[in-house]
Each structure stands twice: as C-alpha cells, then as structure tokens.
Amino acid sequence: MEPAVFLDRDGVIIENRDDYVRSWSDVEFFPAALAALQSFSSSPYRIILVTNQSAVGRGLITLAQAERLNRRITAAVKASGGRVDGTFMCPHAPQANCNCRKPRPGLLLQAAEALNLDLSRSFMIGDALSDLQAGRAAGVREAMLVRTGRGIRQAGLPEATLLQPFRVFDSLAEALDHISSHSE
Ligand SMILES: [Zn+2]
Question: How far is CA 150 from CA 21, 25, 42, 44, 147, in A?
Fold first, then answer.
C-alpha cells in the first residue's frame, strides 16, 4: 500500500469562487501551487485531489462539465511538471446527505480502496476545517490547513479551536515541505 497526499482543489490549487467554479474561465491557478506540485512530483506519495463540487448537485453545471474541469486542471498541473494520480469528487448538494461530501471521509475512503492507499501514512491538505475533519475521519496521519483560499478565515473560526491541534502553513509549498521532511 502506498501513502498519499490528499489535496483539496479550490483554495489550494486554484482560487475559490463564491459563485462556484463553473467553466474553464473561472479557473485561476495559484502559480506557487503549480511550482510546489512540480517540486513534489518526485516524492513517493500518490497525489490525490479530493473536491466537493456541489455546483453539480445544485444544478448549476453538469457532472460531465465538472469532470471535464477536473481533467483540464490535472492536465495543467502535468503540463507544468507536476503530477496528479487521481481525482475524487463529491458532486452532491449538501442536503443529499451523502457520505462523500467533506467533512465526511467518503472521498478519501473511495481513493484508498481504488488505489490501494495506506491512509495511516497519508496526509490531507486543505483550506477549510471540513478538509481537516474529512482527513481525520478517514484516519490520515496528519491533516493540515493552508492560508490560501478560505484558509485564513477558516483558521480563525471558533470551531477551529475544537479541532486543535493542527498545523497551518502559508502555502501548499510549505505544507509539502513539511511532509517531505517528515517522511517515513
Ligand atoms: Zn457526495
């Protein structure tokens, strides 16, 4: 079994949008995140995107459109020398009460099953408390927050104290450096 780094998509790789990422023109990469993924591509970790895309369940975009966006995002990471080994998406609206929408662990569990991942040696990086919760519920070694996207606000929420202790990094690069320096 292999260890993985699970990455949230919006707020970690690309900018969040209040009105959802609906089309390719809504996709704005964090240049530093692409560089960080390039540096990390030689690591032994599988790199897995885990993303809530409720715009599908809300009827704003189709599942096919959302999957196409994921493919283009992955292709752009690859074009800049990075690597994405899998993308797992929850397309459901919150009221569907599914098991895959973070903070639930379904996406990570799906990935672990499909790709034979060792969750206990894996990490989760996100910009939201729900990412921390999903990672922990899945049993990862460590879940951490980045101060990109919604990260600064999320780290300051009252609920964050209930989830302490967790590490917060300024960028994806710093979070990945932490993982590299604490490898097995
Ligand atoms: Zn779901």
Answer: 15, 20, 28, 28, 7
Q: What is the CA radius of gyration of the chain?
A: 15
Render the burial of 106-142: b for 16+ CB within 10 Å, e for the rest: bbbbbbbeeeebebebbbbbbbbbbbbbbbbbbebbb
Q: pTM (2 decimals)?
A: 0.97
Cis status, amide bond into 91, omega within 30 of 0: no
131 included as an active-site residue: no
Q: Is 170 one of the annotated active-site residues of the chain? A: no
Cα of 89 vs centre of ligand 1, distance in Å, is 8
Cα gap 128→151, rounded to integer Å: 6
Q: Where are the domains of the chain?
A: 4-181
Polymer length in residues for the chain: 184
Residue the block writes with tokens 């034979």: 116
Residue 182 pLDDT grade (very low, low, confident, very high; cuts 50, 70, 90) = confident
- CATH topology (fold) of 4-181: Rossmann fold (3.40.50)
Helix or strand (DSSP H, E) at 43: none
